[in-house]
Design brief:
This protein is an alpha/beta fold. The protein contains 17 helices and 26 strands. The C terminus is likely disordered. The structure holds adenosine-5'-diphosphate (ADP).
Length: about 550
């Protein structure tokens, strides 16, 4: 091979262990803060590798984790792939039947499980789906009462093993990781990450055109490590030699605030709801974000108002990013181009609120309903297709899904986007969430952002409901700030939409709810709302007469 060695995860660990041996890894656990350095990390990873080997794990075997973000989970990130096995991170928030499906589909042989999640795993573990599991390892120093069997605790599992391991030369096409899509559209689909995919994703997201992670950074991934490798940040931070901070099981805004302040976090990442929660916390409490320089927000659209508040009130730069499980996951980051910093605030923030520019190494096409590429004019919509070294071309043992979503190495993302003349993409909807009224598209995402920009709105989502005349009409579901006059707020919101958008975009109704249902990854679950409210008679018709420009009836 002309390059000399394969692209694997091994050199990232090797470099951090030797060149940044004193940098810290900090973890919030049930028993308090734990901290050690990369030197100790490397020793523990080596001991884990020996333990796996002794347990009969061989190259190609799958090892599952059912864990939050903490140092032991991070040890499996290098320990498992570097022996040639495959790390399968399982989302504990999935319903039982999905957990059964994916553990059986992946054929996991060992399962690492957090103490706080044991109870959740006990039910599914009784089923035949778990027949291949030979060993449970509880991520702690001892094992509580449990029906999981055979079971041991992590510290005993790795205890009596050497602190060095002769890591094998691996083929870069060897699978290193695996994650399932959250299954909002049927059974979860498996996506495998080879060493080469994780290596190239790390190298592409490391520099300034990606996430810009440096050795001096203190990085706190709030995005769960069971969700697409916490957006690859444990790998990227290690490659950079940065300090890691892991926020542990179910962190509350107060926990995040404390970690940021006490550990000097400079860079953090998570879905918008996490950061909306932190800002709400800051309204009632002291919130010291002076160390925090950058926040990566993605997984769902970051409202412009959120980006602006972090900037103006806390001097924190938000990098809006877009990605998918199938993309390891990062595809775009909304960096400003030279000169844009000087633009007036509105124009600049509009750009920053877009999903941004492709990370170098990727290519895209935006394809309209007639199969043609759209103009980059910021107006024409189409489905985003992406290809590149860390983009999957195949679902695990699901040829029919691969056939549907992949064409000549292009991944059809299912996201509907516009691209502006500067190349910034903007997600206007997921293909299945697009609202079509009288033949014209309405962007639910844009309406949601507008509604959430109102001070009295805590959360809002917009779904299309069936309509006899217009096929579909938008309906807004709004969680108001406590104690607000709902009728007045509804009027204000409708007036605001009428003023800023085409008249036929105005929601037919504003319904107030206590909470927007969320998926297991914290995104708005529109499917649940649609199911709950798909009866058109629920929608009392203030349908504007000019509901759509080309409406024919
Ligand atoms: P799943 O597809 O299983 O729900 P993913 O995490 O893979 O879980 O979700 C990827 C999808 O999330 C994207 O296709 C897109 O629709 C949405 N998404 C991710 N990041 C953003 C973002 N910054 N803005 C809007 N949507 C986003």
């Amino acid at each position: 091979m002309p390059g000399g060695t394969d692209q694997t995860l091994r050199p990232f660990l090797w470099r951090a262990e030797r060149m940044y041996s004193d940098r810290e890894i900090v973890s919030r656990t049930a028993s308090g803060i734990e901290r050690y350095d990369y030197r100790t990390y490397g020793e523990r990873v080596a001991r884990l590798a020996h333990a796996l080997e002794e347990g009969g794990i061989e190259q190609g075997d799958r090892v599952g984790t059912f864990c939050w973000n903490h140092h032991r989970h991070f040890e499996t990130y290098f320990g498992v792939p570097n022996v040639g096995a495959q790390l399968h991170t399982i989302n504990p928030l999935l319903p039982d039947h999905h957990i059964e499906h994916i553990v059986s589909d992946a054929n996991d042989r060992v399962l690492f499980v957090d103490p706080s999640l044991i109870e959740q795993l006990e039910g599914p573990a009784e089923s035949e789906a778990f027949d291949a599991v030979e060993q449970y390892v509880v991520m702690d120093e001892d094992v509580p009462e449990t029906s999981l069997s055979p079971v041991t605790d992590y510290e005993s599992f790795i205890a009596d093993h050497p602190t060095e391991y002769d890591w094998p030369d691996l083929d870069e096409d060897q699978p290193a990781g695996m994650c399932y899509t959250s299954g909002t559209t049927g059974n979860p689909k498996g996506v495998e990450y080879t060493h080469q995919m994780l290596w190239s994703h790390t190298m592409a997201t490391l520099p300034a055109s990606g996430l810009d992670i440096r050795a001096e950074d203190v990085v706190m991934p709030v995005v769960p490590m069971f969700h697409v490798n916490a957006w690859g940040m444990p790998f990227t931070s290690t490659a950079a030699g940065a300090k890691h901070v892991y926020p542990g099981p179910s962190p509350e805004p107060a926990d995040l605030a404390k970690l940021i302040e006490e550990e000097g976090v400079t860079l953090s990442a998570g879905v918008p709801t996490v950061w909306l929660g932190l800002l709400e916390y800051g309204q009632e409490n002291d919130l010291d974000l002076s160390s925090l320089e950058r926040l990566i927000i993605g997984g769902a659209a970051a409202p412009e108002s959120l980006i602006r508040t972090f900037d103006e009130e806390y001097d924190v730069e938000v990098l809006h990013a877009w990605g998918m499980t199938e993309m390891s996951p990062i595809g775009t980051v909304s960096h400003l181009k030279p000169g844009m910093e000087e633009w007036d605030d509105d124009r600049r923030d509009e750009k920053r609120a877009k999903q941004g520019l492709l990370v170098p190494g990727l290519e895209m096409r935006v394809i309209d309903e007639d199969g043609e590429e759209v103009e980059w004019d910021g107006e024409e919509f189409g489905e985003l297709w992406i290809r590149g070294p860390w983009v999957t071309t195949e679902y695990f043992e699901r040829p029919e899904a691969t056939e549907e979503d992949v064409e000549d190495s292009w991944l059809k993302t299912g996201d509907v986007v516009t691209v502006d003349p500067e190349g910034y993409i903007k997600i206007v909807d997921r293909a299945k969430d697009v609202i079509k009224s009288g033949g014209e598209w309405i962007s639910s995402v844009e309406l949601e952002n507008a509604l959430m920009g109102h001070d009295d709105v805590s959360e809002a989502t917009v779904v299309g409901v069936p309509h006899e005349r217009w096929q579909e009409r938008p309906v807004a579901f709004v969680v108001p700030v406590e104690g607000i006059d709902e009728e007045a707020l509804s009027e204000e919101l409708l007036a605001m939409v009428r003023e800023n958008y085409p008249k036929w975009w105005t929601p037919d109704d504003v319904l107030f709810i206590d909470e927007v249902p969320k998926t297991s990854t914290g995104k708005f679950d529109k499917k649940v709302l649609r199911e709950r409210y798909d009866d058109p008679s629920l929608v009392e018709g203030n349908v504007p007469e000019e509901a759509a420009p080309d409406a024919t009836d």
